[in-house]
Design goal:
Layout: H1 2-37, H2 39-44, H3 46-49, H4 54-75, E1 107-112, E2 117-120, E3 129-132, E4 137-141, H5 142-150, E5 154-156
Antiparallel strand pairs: 1-4, 1-5, 2-3
């Protein structure tokens, strides 16, 4: 009986290990997809760049360089002033108007780490408050909890 129990336990551990591996791979794939989608934005915003690991920073830089090299063959054929991958028209003080940025109005799930009481979520709407208690789970726009996330009062799920 002990051998059968040990075999069952080994199978359960193996299944759990495979599940954790699957979740970690899915997490890394999603993170790399986001880095690829927003590579230039990550590189031009110092506060975003510092949140990436050294390997992720190098990956974003390498990815942006590879994409720029790839497009340079086509962009080199464009009229003067239109060869940029990040600007519609190249100007001295022109903004990077073709760089995709994350959607701050997208809804995210988060868990409250600590009691915060009645919190004003939207500075544009002081009447919009919410009582945040530890372990509450919320689905809310990212821009409304960005400050709480920076203060480590909430965790994204």
């Amino acid at each position: 009986a002990s051998s059968a129990t040990d075999d069952l336990t080994a199978h359960v551990y193996h299944a759990e290990l495979n599940r954790i591996r699957f979740l970690m791979r899915a997490y890394y794939r999603a993170r790399l997809r986001k880095i690829e989608t927003h590579a230039v934005h990550c590189l031009k915003e110092p506060d975003v760049l510092e949140r990436l690991s050294d390997l992720e920073q190098r990956y974003a830089s390498d990815y942006a360089n590879i994409v720029e090299e790839h497009f340079s063959s086509v962009l080199g054929q464009m009229p003067e002033g239109y060869e940029s991958m990040v600007q519609q028209i190249i100007e001295e003080d022109g903004a990077f108007d073709m760089v995709p940025e994350p959607d701050a109005d997208a809804h995210v799930f988060c868990r409250v780490r600590e009691d915060r009481g009645d919190v004003m979520l939207d500075p544009d709407d002081p009447e919009n408050t919410m009582d945040l208690e530890r372990d509450d789970i919320l689905m809310i726009r990212y821009r409304l909890i960005k400050k709480l996330l920076e203060d480590e009062a909430v965790d994204l799920m």
